[in-house]
Amino acid sequence: MRIRLISVASRMPGWVEQGYHEYAKRMPADLPLDLVEVPLATRGKNADIARLMRREGEQMLAATQPGDRIVTLEVTGRSWSTEDLAAHLEAWRLEARNVNLMVGGPEGLAAEVAARSEQRWSLSALTLPHPLVRILLAEQLYRAWTILNRHPYHK
Ligand SMILES: C[S@@+](CC[C@H](N)C(=O)[O-])C[C@H]1O[C@@H](n2cnc3c(N)ncnc32)[C@H](O)[C@@H]1O
């Protein structure tokens, strides 16, 4: 099983890439975490935001494969403890479908992406910026994996 973090984003500063890769590279070979970045279209003064979001949503969905599980990251989704995440990770692994974690752009997720969601996951009641969402996701996935594998990191 693979996990793909599919995110609408502009180029991230070095510290974000470093932070994300620090955790992503710790994932085991049989549970890799891959990052797919959908470029954020320029929001000019008269930009048709609805159209841009729809196009970005189509690009996000195009990065998934038929049969994949789609999990959307939403402030208003369900709050999971790290132990809950570990239980989901185990269930996902048993199901043997690839998992796509969808992170929206500045206006949130396109309706087309939200409509395909099988699980809506909230990291916090706070709206978090992209850099923190990305790093937090990678760290929590690694932490959940260490729980399942009784690795001392999670203590
Ligand atoms: C800067 S936020 C967009 C905020 C936008 N106003 C909204 O209501 O979704 C960009 C993306 O980060 C993710 N995100 C931000 N905070 C989050 C949280 N607390 N839990 C889950 N995902 C979050 C969501 O996928 C969101 O679409």
Automatic annotation (TrEMBL):
Catalysed conversion reaction: pseudouridine(1915) in 23S rRNA + S-adenosyl-L-methionine = N(3)-methylpseudouridine(1915) in 23S rRNA + S-adenosyl-L-homocysteine + H(+)
InterPro entries: Alpha/beta_knot_MTases (IPR029028), RlmH-like (IPR003742), tRNA_m1G_MTases_N (IPR029026)
Domain of life: Bacteria
GO MF: methyltransferase activity
GO BP field: methylation
Function noted in UniProt: Specifically methylates the pseudouridine at position 1915 (m3Psi1915) in 23S rRNA.
The protein, known as: Ribosomal RNA large subunit methyltransferase H
Source organism of this protein record: Halopseudomonas salina
